[in-house]
Amino acid sequence: MSAFQSTLWTVIRGAREGDDSHFATFVDRYRPPVVRFITRKGLRSVAEDLAQEVFVRIFTQGVLAKADPSRGRFRSLVLAVTRHVIGHHLEREGAQKRGGGKVGSLGEIDVAAPAQEEDEFDREWVSHLLQVALARLAREHAHYHQALGGVLFEGRSYAEMASELERTENQIRNHVHRGRTKLVQYLRDEVREYAASEEDYQQELQSLARHFPSRNG
């Protein structure tokens, strides 16, 4: 088994075999961007329920047969099922469809999505990856996380952070630089968790790159 198949795909195989813990792990890891995407579609009141339906359908209606490491991008599959669930909800509610054409059956699900929707989902996906990466940075390098958060995300000066963390300004600059480097690596690690191959990994990074925090050098 390749390194690319030892994480997400192990979870998927376990879930296919009825392991509830694998299903819970899968849902916990990928639910947040789905909920936020559905919320942005104006369905805040039912976002949690529809997100749950997305993952139930993924695991109970044969959709995982498409989640093969040799076929397509996992992220695109999640988006396709999410669009399908939203479409059926709107049909059930008698609301006007959003996002284009008629929704087909899951057996014929098309992973292609309108560019605007794909871009919206990409932003939510990367936002979630960023939150996970920041949480890891906080656990593993607390000073890097504090300095990076203060300077880059809160707009505070190096002098302010130096005083707060009892460091020199030069140390804070080093913390920010190293923290940013670590953060980008952690983001890449998250993509590697669900990539099926080296090619898929590189293509996924390229696809999501416009939403990743930039890094000098």
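The record above closes out task 2.4. Task 2.5 opens with a second protein, given below.
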Amino acid sequence: MNLSIEYEQEVDGRWIAEVPELPGVLVYGTTADEAMSKAEVLALRVLAERLETGENRPVSISISFATAACASGHQPKPIGFWLH
């Protein structure tokens, strides 16, 4: 299963991050790192819940990060994380 975390800075300065492949996994943070960390944690919790309830079977997971232009036009550096 390939998951991506998309993140960008809102006009008010907060950062938003979401995992498009998992509806409802959308979080805010005061920094890009905080938002991405929260999104990763929430995505893993959702996947764990699905496994516990038998909704999904165990699979390899790959998580990558994608940036969008923030309000200031600054492009944060993308980083990657893979969990197998």
